Fold this sequence. Notes:
The protein is mainly α. The protein contains eleven helices and three strands, in the order H-E-H-H-E-H-H-H-E-H-H-H-H-H. A three-stranded mixed beta sheet has the order 2-1-3. Helix 2 packs antiparallel against helix 3 (58-86) and helix 8 packs antiparallel against helix 9. The model is unreliable at 1-5 (pLDDT under 50).
Amino acid sequence: MRNTNESSLTGFILLGFSDHPRLQKALFVVILILYLLTILGNTIIILVSRLEPKLHMPMYFFLSHLSFLDLCFTSSVIPQLLVNLWEPMKTITYGGCAVQLYVSHALGSTECVLLVVMSYDHYVAVCRPLHYTVLMHPHLCMILASMAWLSGVATTLVQSTLTLQLPFCGHHQVDHFICEVPVLIKLSCIDTTFNEAELFVASILFLIVPVSFILVSYGYIAQAVLQIKSTTGRQKAFGTCSSHLMVVLIFYGTIIFMYLQPAKSRSKDQGKFISLFYTVVTPMLNPLIYTLRNKEFKGVLKKVLGNILGVNFT
């Protein structure tokens, strides 16, 4: 029993990229820059979507939630990662690891569901344009967003709790830079067949099912777009939806690779860099993809910045 509870008393050591000491300082600089860009880009999306009445529509309502999710998710992971990259001591308390596990898992699961909601919004906008305002009314948008958040909270309460109940028998060296479910299950000293099965089922529900739904919805969207006679209208529809589809491919692709690929089929460094991609890079890319490929948002952003700075952008 003493060995079982030792990790809860001493905490964990996040080994991270300690096998590559020369790489750590370079990673610190790169990740710090990406983190600052993530904060800036997602904050701009939230503020502009709130300040500009023209953007008070379902698409930007859900986009604001996505930006807020990315802000919270990166802030639950990156500060600890930066400390570990800079400091020789790479420890995290048991409580800190538990908080990071609960929060990051809840936010990641919420984003999985929110991206499905956003694909449904795009489906209605393209395939049912005449009924869009009736179908996507504010009350329904609030319900869909609440369902995404509640599903994320529910899955982390189950999955993270089951993971933290595992005995680690004094094993406190986590060969990763974040407290994630797969790496903590691997750290346990008992048979984890049940936990692995539960993780597999949760991955199917929050990864495979959403991706399948999104791909089906975009199949209908593609059919509807190809029937648009106006070239301008067709380009606008493709531009609006392609940005969301790009986010989906980047986000789900990296997480599916991490959670559904057998651990023995990938190297430990490969898993770390894949995790680094969806915890650091993807949240930074989201605002860039949605703003640079969206003429409407770019126009509104210029207007808002012009009003704030007193400059007329043409």
